[in-house]
Predict the structure.
Amino acid sequence: MIPSVLPTYNRAPLEFVRGEGSWLVERDGRRFLDLGSGIAVNALGHAHPDLVATLNEQAQKLWHVSNLYRIPEQQRLADLLVEHTFADTVFLTNSGTEACELAVKMARKYWYEAGDPDRVEIIAFEGAFHGRSTAAIAAAGSEKMIKGFGPVLGGFTHLPWGDIAALKKAASEKTAAVLLEPIQGEGGIRAMSDEDLRAVRAICDETGALLILDEVQCGMGRTGRLFAHEWAGITPDIMMVAKGIGGGFPLGAVLADERAASGMTVGTHGSTYGGNPLGCAVGAKLVEIVSDPGFLATVNDRAGALRQKLEGLVATHPDIFDEVRGAGLMLGLRCKVPNVDVVSAGFDAEVITVPAADNVIRLLPPLNITEEELAEAVTRLDAAATQIESASSSD
Ligand SMILES: *Cc1c(COP(=O)(O)O)cnc(C)c1O
């Protein structure tokens, strides 16, 4: 008999009943150090007092009102995002997938209105993840995501990750947009170098193609800048944001400059819940906290310390770990044993990590994790690795 919850997830036998900062409490009372943050969602950990207060306050006032009316919390969040980024305008969504839908529609509509309606081709990269809707799986293009779901939305070309020479060849006056994650998350914490990001920007400028960056996972302070592309000194034309921006409340956004957004006039897009007062109040508080230069400086300090400790871990366990990759507090450990075994040994050691492609485990701790907690996390990862070593030596 089919379970009452549609069985599309492979769930660990863990049931968390409470969260406190960087910690998750299991039903049986065990306290897990959370290096997953709900896959980069709980940017300020669990039950952050300012976010709780903001949510409670808004909950007393107004939960939902239609986008038929002005929504001051939405306006405030959009103003903050415009103030702190390249963007001139923002559309609020409830998720990264919805942000992907709009980013694709916006890019194509731009060319339609520019008198070039056949310019619909979007170049994306292998290993990408942009969500699970029909457009998002077409954008990712992997067999695993599209197989069995009928006709795939057309107009996407896929290149090997980071292959700038291939992009140079593929991009043309027919390319509507180039779409990529500055650091692939699900794809295994695979970062594009700053130099290559600048090359992508240059190719877009030469051909006129719009650059869409998916910063759903790597954005919102995760790399130590508010958005990852800032390190390369470039700006996109359109950017997808979600996950961390809500700190655990479902929230996403599409940011764009005025030109790229110019096709999206009254009636061309909408959402019932997108931009609702509850989500936007929380999002605005979160952006306020995370965009503070002092906060980001601390993220960079923590990131440097964690990276150094992880390099040490790789050196201590050369049969378990291969290398550290990523940037800021978006780090991956490539494994030499199956990554899911390391995640599972981590559960035994009461530390939470998240598997990704390329046999990587992801470390995406809350951005406000303390130094002591990071040291404890690495001690627990060390215990997990030792457990796997002693199990294999006793075989
Ligand atoms: C998670 C993710 C998405 C999809 O976001 P949802 O909120 O799950 O719809 C899109 N792009 C990237 C890079 C992601 O990590």
Summary: Residues 386 and 392 are 10 Å apart (CA to CA). The longest helix spans residues 293-316.
